[in-house]
Amino acid sequence: MTIATDWNMLLVKGLPFLTLLGMGLLLLVIEVLWWGKDKTIMLILSLLAVAASFYFAWDQWIQNIPWSQQLLVFDRLSYIFDLIFLFCLLITLLISRDHIKREHIERGEYYALLLLATVGMMMMAHAGDLMVLFLGIEVMTIGAYILAGIKKRHSKSNEAALKYFILGGIAAGLMVFGIAFFYGATGSTQLSILNQTFAEVDSSQSVLIFLAVALILVGLCFKIAAVPFHFWSPDVYEGAPTTVTAFMATAIKAAGFVALFRVLFIVISLTHIPWVPLLSTLSIATMTVGNLVALRQTNIKRMLAYSSIAHAGYALVGLAAAAKDNQLSEMALGAIVFYMMAYAVITLGAFAIVVAMGHRGDEAEEISDFAGLGQRHPLLAAAMTVFMIALTGIPPTIGFIGKFYLFASAIEVGLYTLVVIGVLNSVVSAYYYLGVVMTMYFKEGAVYRWPPLAYLLTTSIFLTLLGTLYWGVFPKDLFLMAQESVRQVIF
Amino acid sequence: MDTLVLGISLETLAWLIPGLPLLGALCNGCATLMARRSGQVAPKPLITFLGVGTPFLSFMVTTFLFFIIRSTHHSIDTAPLFTWMAVDDFIVPFSLYVDQLSIVMTLVVTGVGSLIHLYSVGYMAHDKAYDRYFTYLNLFLFSMLILVLGNNLPMMFIGWEGVGLCSYLLIGFWFQDPEKAYAGKKAFVVNRIGDFGFLLAMFLLYTTLTQQGVDMRGGSLNFATLEAQRQLLAPVATTACLLLFVGACGKSAQIPLYIWLPDAMAGPTPVSALIHAATMVTAGVYMIARLNFLYLLSPDAMSVVATVGAVTAFFAATIGLAQNDIKKILAYSTISQLGYMFLGVGVGAFSAGIFHLVTHAFFKACLFLGAGSVIHGLHEEQDIWKMGGLRHKMPVTFLTFLLAVAAIVGIIPFAGFFSKDEILFQTFMRGHRVLWAIGFATAGITAFYMCRLFALTFLGKSRIDPHKEAPIHESPLSMTLPLMILGLLSLIGGWIGIPEVFKGHNYFHHWLQPVLGAGTLINESAHMHGTELILAVASFLWVFHVGLIALILYSQKLDWIKRCVKKMDWVYNILRDKYYVDEIYDFILIRPIHWLSQQILWRFGDEQIIDGLMVNGSAKTINLAGRLLSLMQTGWTQHYALFLAAGALGLVAYFVL
User: What residues of B are in contact with residue A231 (Cβ under 8 Å)?
Assistant: First the structure.
């Protein structure tokens, strides 16, 4: 079954990731030919590409003309995630410059890999075929493997890259296995065809399909670091350069969720799988383990790693709510999309501050390094306080609104136990988030002159702070946008 | 009503009355805060200007409005400044109500208040916290005016709580002294007990009206609505009135909640004069008069009010006989006089109660300010046994004090005579003979202890410490001027209500008639004049002679007095120790509550159960769980892969099986 491809249409619709792809490749070429030591040009080019791509994605979101080309689909859901990825990329680029200079990893491929990894994520968001989805995952993850280990002379960075690579390889292998089972059972990997097959043929007895779904889920749960597939993330987050960690914790997590959406849209109609108990169990395990272990962390990056696991657990609450009645409900999906945005804004801000804390030769990654920050740098401490409050989910921040929508959507379908556990988990999380605040204000720290903060870093902190507070008070537009995005999903 | 005066509407003028003191409080408060930040004291002339100027302006506006009302006979009900609360159909607009009753009260509050502000300039001149003092005093005036002028019960309650707060702040004004801070706390706590009654009464009235389906969108619980719907309130009137009276007992220091007022004398003397004699403590009387339509529905509640008033009057007066602190005597006298007012409103003579409230404000403020002048002159000496013979050294204080004593004792034609006898006459005429007898006896006791106070302070020989004697001087003009004005008012203040039997026109009662109704005064028809005259003359002769005896004994026969006291020392001791009421409360209430709080609720409930088991226990459990779970994070990739595989297996098993 071949349909003549409308190349012009594809070009226009695919501009967001084509721009990034082109710029990523261009940067690799420039890196080879460019002999100057100053890589500012790379940053500028990357930012330009991000801006252009952002414009194209925004334009397409506004136009709202869903179009499917079998392998790739273009709907609002994919574009909103393009926008999320681009925002994460933007903030990562902004906080990168000074950090990678300090760490001596300022190379062209750093920028190129960030851009190309983002292209991979976008392919996941636009995937209309399981093979494209897998391809996107691989493009994204391979970029992430290298970025995690980019501090070549740093044993922790190497360890992180290797662990990530080995475990990621296993997960990818299992996933590809699952896709193969799908192909074996139905003769296709295209999502639209799978959808039709499930609708027409009673597949409740097919062990192959169950195996396929289970294995693909393992691969995706690995990406969003759901328990018990989360073990890689603290080690990798700790070892990787902080900016890369920020990127992984936000963009890759969002990419994992959009991939999960794409798969779930199809397999949710398999009525013989008890989706709600399954997703609820995953959710409870993920948020509980994430929060409980986060309590014991002394390293801020590890703490944020476990916190990101916990937040994936909260988002899974929304997914469990969405899966009720074997069709994904719009309200819950919209809440998850909103939560992804909220979580990305807050976490990027928190990581920006972790980057700002560091100095040449001292990355200041321990929570105890924050002691006395309230006196040394009141504004930075105040910003960190806002981010920590937002991560806990306290008003008037976007973190509260995000959690509110998630839990509200779960209440709507009667998942009270799940919400109670979620709220209790939030209480536990207050301990370690506010612990950072307490350390900043109530513990004596080393007194030294604070160097002026880099301009780009300040900008990124300001942007994330603004987003956290503004959307915390006026969430309506953003929430409507998230709701709109899940209204008309195509395969 | 949109009458314009100099381009200002009457409503705006009404708002100015509480608005001006609020402005003063805000400006003074800001000045104080800013000065404290830089470690200085705010400039005194500015504080004085704002602190004294705004009440005076407010008084002038009030006077103006008074004449407007007098000529138009209309009350002013302002449009809401804003809606304070709007929850479903519970709506509280913030608006004022100026009628014959509230304008009288406002005149007293702003008039006496302004004089006391002026007096404070001299009295507090050397205090370090001069600026803070005026901030609080202006804030008090604002709260009191809201209490008086508010057009609904919730607004009255704002003022009610506001004056309570200011009273607390000013009693504990010198909070460095733990005893004074404690007195402030005691006043606040006792007042809160009363406020509970007030709150419950509001809830009761509101639920009753809601259940009857009354449309209250124009403002819930405003006085006009309550009065219009009073028939619906008849079934709950007794309960509501008694609950409100609990509030009044707290605020106006009646049995059993009077115990805070004597201790409240720890505050600066002008504060005692303004808050704890002339204005705040009379709020309870005002509230009952304001809600007269409600009280008239419940004869039971009225008789409770009257009885409590009469008993308090007698009880407090007897305690006053044996006190030695000049301010404590005046405090008990205040409680006693408040009892008279409650007796008046309790027997249904609302206007008589308010009349006594007004005259009492004059002469009691004068007495307190005079006492303040004496204390100031003697450098903080308050024991009347260490005074004496001050008539030569402080002539102005002496004279004005004399006028006020004559007024409180009830000598013709001083202010207190007309108001007190009005109450006693009305009590008698309405058939409360026992209460009348108590009131009559109390009048004699009052005469005795007031003359005792006066004689020991101003007459006889000086008993002042010799080395303190030299610098005694009359107080400055800022203090003596208010004294003179109040002294004059103690003389002529009662003439606004001279009854017909003395060829007067009973102007005051006619003035209040539109609010309190015609039935509130027994019509003074001619055949009752005889009774009234007999009662008045009897009471006059009684207090005159008792007072005279006290004057002579305490100025010239001190040895004889001392021997008498020694012989009857058990009676004297009981009176001196205030019937041990504080000790009884301490034993039956405070200590058990303390014990319960400390041993059961705190040591066991809070520390063991809540903190120990629940808070720390759950935290420890969670911490332990976190530690166990983090053991899985070994750092070995093999282990991670194992867990991953196990998870995958589990998932597959879940699906397939």
Answer: 632-633, 639-640, 643-644
Task: Name the residue with higher pLDDT: B550 or B501.
Answer: B550
Same domain for B426 and B315, yes or no, is yes
Do residue B449 and residue B589 come from a single domain? no
| Residue B192 domain-assigned (yes or no) | no
Same domain, B568 and B614: no
Q: How far is CA B643 from CA A167, A232, B605, B633, B634, in A?
A: 11, 11, 45, 10, 11
Parallel, antiparallel, or unpaired: how do β-strands B97-98 and B76-77 relate?
antiparallel
**Among chain A residues, CA nearest to B622:** A292
Residue A401 has pLDDT above 90, yes or no: yes
The reported pTM is 0.66
Best probe of the A interface among B621, B639, B651, B654, by most A CBs < 10 A, is B651
Band of pLDDT at residue B1, cut at 50, 70 and 90:
very low
Contacts of A156 in chain B (CB under 8 A): none
- Interface contact A432, partner B, CB < 8 A: no
Q: Give the tens place of pLDDT for each residue, A81-92.
A: 999 999 999 999
Q: Is the pLDDT of residue B8 over 80?
A: no
- Regarding whether B457 and B310 lie in a shared domain, the answer is yes
Q: Classify the C-alpha dihedral A334-A335-A336-A337 as positive or negative.
A: positive
8 Å CB contact of B622 and A292: yes
In a domain, B411, yes or no: yes
Per-residue pLDDT reduced to its tens digit, B611-650: 888 888 888 888 898 888 888 888 888 899 899 999 989 8
Distance between CA atoms of residues B479 and B481, nearest Å: 6
State the Cα–Cα distance between residues A460 and A352, nearest whole angstrom: 7
Distance from the B652 Cα atom to the nearest Cα atom in chain A, whole angstroms: 5
Burial zone of B301 (CB within 10 Å; 0-12 exposed, 13-18 middle, 19+ buried): buried
Examine the domain organization and report whether B477 and B593 are in the same domain.
no
Residue B279 lies in a domain: no
Distance set, CA B546 to CA A474, B159, B452 (Å): 77, 40, 10
What ipTM is given for this predicted complex? Answer: 0.87
